Predict the structure.
Amino acid sequence: MATVKIKYRDKEYEVNAGMTVRDAIKKVGLQPEAVLAVSDGKLITDDTIITDGMRIKLVAVVSGGAPGPRAAAGGAVSITAGGAT
Amino acid sequence: MKCRKCGETAVINMRQHKLGLCAGHYLEWLPEQVERFVEKYRMFTRQEKVLVAVSGGKDSLGLWDILHRLGYRTEGLYIGLGIGAPQSGAGGDYSGESLRLSEAFAVERGLTLHVVDVEERFGATIPELAVISNRGHGKPCSVCGLNKRYIMNRAALEGGFDALATGHNLDDEVAVLMQNTFNWAAGYLARQAPVLPAAGGLTRKVKPLCRIYEREMTAYCLVRGIEYIYDECPHAEGSTTIYYKDILNRMEADRPGAKLQFYLSFLQAKEQGLFAQAEDKVDLHPCDRCGQPTSAPGDCSFCRLWDKVRLVKQTVGARPQAAPLLAR
């Protein structure tokens, strides 16, 4: 199955295409209410289905520092430290 | 998801309002909401002069943009805290970058931005001040708050502004509300409101974004193309506000509208007199030194704090505190 890269601050995640942005955010252990998703320089809603070839960047909305992601709820998630935001 | 107004692709889904909007309609909708709250809570009128406190962040710059678009008479106030300066011990140049963004924002719109640099004006950066004064258990947040409140109030009064507007959003308000509720801090609960009227030398303070989600403000800045400082203050990491915001966001994910409901129910309870007994009438009088309001006898806590710092730094009298803050 095709995977799609999601960037958040200095981290990079890979998720499977076919899921919604909201599910992907949860999958990587982030709060859906605490981030917004941007693709091709445009805001996208969290019900958007992730398709092969998309590049997604998550923008933190919470002021006052960024709490680290909580442990992901299982599934295939890879994290690459040092990816550009 | 489609925009409810035109059927184009939506850029934001506001689950708490069951509302999805495209970029164009979102940029119309949000200022309309802010205007509605400015009027509902009688914050200020279009004839009055408003000083907007800006930090270079999304909320304050977004607020200033919205008020300017709505036709309100605004000027900005930026307070240079010296965070991230070489002597501050924090990484990066946080204050320098936030000043650059605030100035660029003002120049682009032809707006007036007043800059008060704490070190230049009073003799030390906020992180230095925290170390020297030994307040705040190693974190500068306490002295930072004291300095910002003092400078904002004094600048608003000296500049003849009718109100001081800050970018506190719903998430900020609800995080504080939750913290104060857990501590049953009735006095603080009694004082939390969208508007704090002018009294005893204190200027009117207003929070036009008090019912706007933090997520909505971020979306507004992204769609509007407002460049803001993305990283928050390095000293804010691990703060209790972040802790409560995280809990509240989990609740919001399960129950859309939970944060707004908590805040609105609080305002309603307050209006019905739930915290009336806790409203303490503090006797304010002018500080013997600077004339700003204080409840302490003699000098205010700001003057006393800086006395201590000047003594340590041996710069007594180098910077007269009574000189006007704003260059006119």
Observations:
- Chain A touches chain B at residues 31-34, 36, 38, 42-48, 59-67 (CB under 8 Å).
- The beta strands of chain A are 3-8, 11-16, 35-39, 42-44, 55-60, 78-81.
